[in-house]
Write a structure and sequence with these properties.
The chain is flat and about 55 Å long. The protein starts with a helix and ends in a 14-residue tail after the last helix. The chain has one domain (about 5-90). Helix content is about 75%, strand content about 0%. The protein has three helices and no strands. Helix 1 (about 5-20) runs antiparallel to helix 2 and helix 2 (about 25-55) packs antiparallel against helix 3 (about 60-90). With about 100 residues, it is an all-alpha fold.
C-alpha cells in the first residue's frame, strides 16, 4: 500500500547521494533535499492511509500522489523560466556553466 511513497523517498535520496558522492551537487542542496524528503514522507504516508481507509481503494491515493508530483514539476518549471527571463531582461548571461553542474 505504501510502495509509491517508499520508492519515491529512496529513489530521491539515492539520486541525491550519488550526486553528492560524485561532487555534482553542493552540500547545502543535499541537506535541503534530505530535510524535505523526511518532512514530506511522514504526512504523505498518513494521508495515503487515510485515503485508503475512507475509500477502500489505493488507486485514489496514487492518483493524488501523481497529481502532486505533476503540479510540483509544472510550478517549479514555470517559476524557473520566469526567473531566467527576469535575469535575461536585467542583462545577465542566462546560459553559462556553474561550478556544480555540467562537469
Amino acid at each position: 500500500m505504501y510502495t509509491n511513497a517508499v520508492l519515491s523517498l529512496f529513489s530521491t535520496m539515492c539520486a541525491v547521494a550519488l550526486s553528492l558522492v560524485f561532487n555534482t551537487m553542493p552540500y547545502d542542496y543535499f541537506l535541503a533535499s534530505l530535510i524535505a524528503s523526511i518532512i514530506g514522507a511522514a504526512p504523505g504516508i498518513k494521508l495515503q492511509s487515510y485515503i485508503v481507509q475512507k475509500t477502500g481503494k489505493a488507486q485514489y491515493s496514487l492518483m493524488g500522489f501523481n497529481l502532486i508530483v505533476l503540479l510540483c514539476l509544472v510550478s517549479v518549471t514555470a517559476y524557473q523560466a520566469t526567473l531566467i527571463n527576469m535575469k535575461k531582461d536585467d542583462g545577465y548571461q542566462t546560459w553559462k556553466r556553474n561550478s556544480y553542474c555540467l562537469k
